């Protein structure tokens, strides 16, 4: 896989470089256009800056959300372009479409060192089409904008989409620094991780993490389970979980995992419960085995944080994916904060597996530099750890 450094060594001055970025940022609820977390924009800045400073004409493309293959104002990248320019410290021309007249005019007017951001790729049905011909036709239009293609969108490499998979076969292609770093980190987690190796998994559903649990069961020394998914495990042990999130169809699977893993799977011993899902709910901290009927668990409790912290003691490799509770609401943020702070104290290689975990680190004001690596690709990271082949990486590795 050729990387950005090789491209820069070859020279990009005066060349048009088409960059696939992951600018799929979250927005503040009920405040359209207000970006809640600009981490993904910041992550791609080194690649864009290096290309710009080397004299390339840079055309950036990204998706945002899940529009239905046609323009939708709710998912416009216009606010992202504004923030992108602020962080880049130089103008970013925003094209009002992806491959139409606005994009064509913006690319035609580009000069060396200039940057254009195309409108949301998913406003075009060809981006996500399962029909190779439809996807390929859109890829042809995108590829016509560039002389060279750089993929720095690790968060999208698990998708067989036009901008990720097909464009790479139409242009000389290179991996951006972000993609190369992610692959390096994930290889370190899968091929020969330093032990003890502790994995912390949260989030809402066991089904979302089942494949990665199966894949890591033979590698990890401990699997710490928090978040909404812990209640299906607790129910599988025979405990009542009140009105907590529960996947009934996963109970047998959880029983099997618990039987095979033994004491390597560690579950919370106490939880913060509430009488409703709201920031002003009545709350209590109870034993994980004594959740009252009608109440729902929304965070792990302080004893569980202490238990997880103890399990992290002496770890040499840590992978964390998924919050321990509903960290967006203050009464249910302490579990995630406590576990994150415990990870920062580990004397070893620590990885935050993107998605909500990365957002939580920033939202809770925890120093990002205290972790070995914060991934930008939650779903892509998990699929890599599961051993799946990722289409975007396959395309970059092809000659």
List the helices and strands and how they pair.
Elements: H1 4-10, E1 16-20, H2 39-53, E2 57-61, H3 78-88, E3 93-94, H4 101-108, E4 115-117, H5 125-128, H6 132-143, E5 148-151, H7 162-166, E6 173-175, H8 177-190, E7 197-201, H9 206-216, E8 222-225, H10 230-236, H11 251-261, E9 265-266, E10 270-274, E11 283-287, E12 296-300, H12 302-312, E13 317-321, H13 334-344, E14 349-352, H14 355-363, E15 373-374, H15 378-386, H16 391-397
Parallel strand pairs: 1-2, 1-5, 2-4, 3-4, 5-6, 7-8, 7-13, 8-9, 13-14, 14-15
Antiparallel strand pairs: 10-11, 10-12
Provide a quick synopsis of the model.
By secondary structure, this protein is of the alpha/beta class. The protein contains 16 helices and 15 strands.
Strand order of the largest sheet: 3-4-2-1-5-6
Strand segment count? 15
Low-confidence stretches: none
Give the structural class.
alpha/beta
Strand percentage = 5-15%
The radius of gyration computed from the alpha-carbon positions, rounded to a whole number of angstroms, is: 22 Å
Distance between the termini: 9 Å
Number of helices: 16
- Overall pLDDT metric: 95
Helix content: 25-40%
Described by strand count, sense and barrel closure, the largest sheet is: 6 strands, parallel
């Amino acid at each position: 896989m050729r990387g950005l450094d090789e491209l820069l060594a070859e020279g990009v001055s005066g060349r048009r470089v088409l960059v696939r970025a992951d600018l799929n940022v979250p927005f503040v609820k009920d405040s359209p256009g207000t970006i809640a977390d600009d981490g993904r924009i910041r992550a791609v800045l080194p690649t864009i800056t290096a290309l710009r400073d080397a004299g390339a004409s840079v055309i950036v493309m990204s998706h945002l959300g899940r529009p239905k293959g046609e323009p939708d104002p709710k998912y416009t990248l216009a606010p992202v372009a504004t923030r992108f320019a602020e962080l880049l410290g130089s103008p970013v021309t925003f094209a009002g479409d992806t491959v139409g007249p606005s994009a064509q005019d913006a690319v035609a007017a580009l000069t060396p060192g200039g940057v254009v951001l195309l409108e949301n790729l998913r406003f075009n049905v060809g981006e996500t089409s399962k029909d190779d011909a439809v996807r390929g036709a859109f890829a042809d239009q995108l590829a016509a904008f560039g002389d060279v293609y750089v993929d720095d969108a690790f968060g999208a490499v698990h998708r067989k989409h036009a901008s990720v998979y097909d464009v790479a076969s139409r242009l000389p292609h290179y991996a951006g620094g972000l993609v190369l770093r992610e692959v390096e980190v994930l290889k370190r987690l899968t091929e020969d991780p330093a032990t003890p190796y502790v994995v912390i998994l949260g989030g809402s559903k066991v089904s979302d993490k089942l494949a990665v649990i199966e894949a890591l069961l033979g590698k990890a020394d401990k699997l710490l389970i928090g978040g909404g998914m812990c209640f299906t495990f607790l129910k599988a042990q025979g405990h009542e979980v009140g009105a907590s999130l529960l996947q009934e169809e996963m109970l047998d699977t959880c029983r099997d995992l618990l039987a095979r893993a033994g004491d390597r799977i560690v579950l919370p011993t106490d939880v913060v419960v509430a009488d409703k899902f709201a920031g002003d709910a009545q709350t209590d901290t109870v034993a994980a085995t004594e959740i009252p009927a009608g109440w729902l668990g929304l965070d792990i409790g302080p004893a569980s944080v202490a238990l997880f912290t103890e399990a992290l003691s002496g770890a040499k490799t840590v992978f964390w994916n998924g919050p321990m509770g509903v960290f967006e609401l203050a009464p249910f943020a302490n579990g995630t904060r406590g576990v994150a702070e415990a990870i920062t104290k580990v004397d070893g290689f620590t990885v935050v597996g993107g998605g909500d975990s990365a957002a939580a680190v920033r939202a809770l004001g925890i120093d990002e530099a205290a972790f070995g690596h914060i991934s930008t690709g939650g779903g892509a990271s998990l699929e890599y750890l599961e051993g799946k082949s990722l289409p975007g990486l396959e395309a970059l590795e092809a000659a």
